[in-house]
Amino acid sequence: MARWELLATVVEHRRHAPNQYELILHAPPIAETVQPGQFVLVRPLDTHAPLLRRPYSVLRANPDKGVISLFYSVQGVFTEQLSLKPVGSTIRVLGPLGNWFQRVSGVNRHILVAGGFGAPPLCFFAMRLAPTLKAAERIVILAGARSRDLLVGLDEFRALGAEVHVATEDGSHGYPGLVTDLLIESLKDPTPAAVYACGPNAMLKVVSQACKARGVPCFVSVDVPIPCGVGACLGCAVRVAMPDGGQWFRRACVEGPVFRGEEVVWE
Amino acid sequence: MNITPDLRVQLGPLSLPNPVLAASGTFGYGLEYADLVNLSMLGGVVVKSLTLSPRAGNPPPRVVETPAGMLNAIGLQNEGVETFIREILPRLREYGVPIIASVAGETVEEFCAVAERLGGASGIVALELNLSCPNQARGGIEFGVDPQQTAAVVGAVRARCSLPLIAKLSPNVTDIVPIAQAAWQAGADALSLINSLWGLAVDVQTRQFRLANRTGGLTGAAIKPIALYHVWRVHQALPEVPLIGIGGIMSWEDAVEFLLVGASAVQVGTANFVQPTICLQILQGLQRYLTEQGIAGVQSLIGSVQDNG
Fold first, then answer.
1. What is the mean pLDDT of residues B200-217?
2. Does A1 touch chain B (CB under 8 A)?
């Protein structure tokens, strides 16, 4: 899989909500090859603090225009630096990195479970999945967050004609409670389904266990720090169960970030 | 008239095409970066530390960013020396870069066994002994914090392997000079200074250690002044010992600082994560600096720092 380390030009910071933006970058080779679930490592400035690049899943890619979008929320020094990059300036981008979500065949429901800021790669996946659906197939979105203002991508999901269900922990929108409650309810429907999830690891753990209990194929994109992105530092290790009954660590940046739910040994 | 500066360096019996190497643990086995970096232009690649058997490493979280640095507690995860020799080394050899194998062990015997296997493999130019490994016989205290334990590892490996030996020293000591001296007298051909510094970080919201291992090794720009200090001190005390400077090198200027205080070569570590092409950028910067300063070769920079005032 080819990847590039390049200077990408800032095209736009598109506002989604207060403090939440879609950063559109001109990075043609990445736009042409990136798959849903893959990520890039970005570095807005040559500073020593923050020092490391940060990983961002791609929210959408337009190969014709040579652009990719990354979703960010301004929460600290790094994202503030990112937000202050003027249109026309450049930032360093390494990618596309990691593996990606692949559609499961032979199922009628593709259930995408999006936890808070974990939604972007699932938006991208839904965009690529929607045009390929057969008549009996549909996309079901289960989106959850602590509160209404932390829900991401609902407009994008609805624009695709997906069935969207929302949960918020404070009850400010949709079902009052955890998005995993919606999943457990949804899995009672015997229609063959596959689950694709991204969000906090605590959510992914419950998603994986619920799917395993029902024998439903489940793919999760894990939430871990990723220092190098190329498999060199082993800092992004995820504990997995091996076929021989033992355990080993896999790299979220190379063998992940998407893992089969049942292979991850949750910490 | 511009003369292309001579970048070759000599560390005892070890000749390298230039003084910029990738540090162990930060460059994988080199292959991870092969599509992004022209490996053949590097002074060398020090591969991730190898143990006798495969090691799973520590539970996550293994890394956390800190001001101008990062803490890591990887726990020596590696495929083991046999898999390295059989599956990885033949592929890395094709790139034509000097390969230095980092040797780790929990006992003197394990260091020797790994070194012996590597000594019999072709295409390795030197061994670097990772003396920051926990010493099983001493309750997990690093070998490198004690002159006698340091000498025990270096001397034992020296007796069983003819490759040039580099001892990589720990900075987590009261005085690094006696340890450097012990490693040198036990037969090391060169010393790498420094390995990471012990540190920790706490999440005040969860009131938990940020690393699963609680403590980790601090690396990155934050440690450069400390690394420079150790290199300078050892060079003052033991001017005849070839040194490789490591610690927070982020730019060519940083690399030149290390050469000026007495390092004959440098290893670039954490900076590889920040900018995969950084080693080659440092090499280009060094070449430009030598040309602009009218210095014929990198050798004449080594240890040439002057007093200020």
1. 97
2. no
Phi, psi of A134 (to 5 degrees): -85, 170
Report yes or no: A58 and A69 within 8 Å, Cβ to Cβ: yes
> How many angstroms separate the CA of residue B38 from the nearest CA in chain A?
13
Task: Give Cβ neighbours of residue B285 (< 8 Å, ≥ 6 apart).
Answer: B251, B252, B253, B255
pTM of full prediction above 0.90: yes
Mean of the per-residue pLDDT values for chain B? 96
Provide mean pLDDT across the span A190-218: 97
Q: Do B65 and A50 touch (CB under 8 A)?
A: yes
Q: For residues A34-43, b (16+ Cβ closer than 10 Å) or e, as one string?
A: bbbbbbbbbb
Interface test with A, best of B29, B31, B32, B45 (most A CBs within 10 A): B32
pLDDT band at A95 (very low <50, low <70, confident <90, very high): very high
Any CB–CB contact under 8 A between B252 and chain A? Answer: no
Confidence of residue B257 (pLDDT cuts 50, 70, 90): very high
How close is the nearest chain A Cα to the Cα of B176, in Å?
A: 27
The three-state DSSP-derived secondary structure of A79-121 is HHHHHCCCCCCEEEEEEEECCCCCCCCCCCEEEEEEEHHHHHH
CA B26 to CA B285: how far, in whole Å? 21
User: Could you confirm whether B133 is annotated as catalytic?
Assistant: yes
Smallest Cα distance from B305 to chain A, Å: 25
Under DSSP, is residue A149 helix (H, G, I), strand (E, B) or coil? helix
- The rounded distance, in Å, linking the Cα atoms of A214 and A216 is 5
Helix (H) or strand (E) holding A197: strand A193-198
Supply the pLDDT for residue B76: 94
Average pLDDT, chain A: 96
The pLDDT value given to residue A214: 96
Cβ pair A97, A228 in contact under 8 A: no
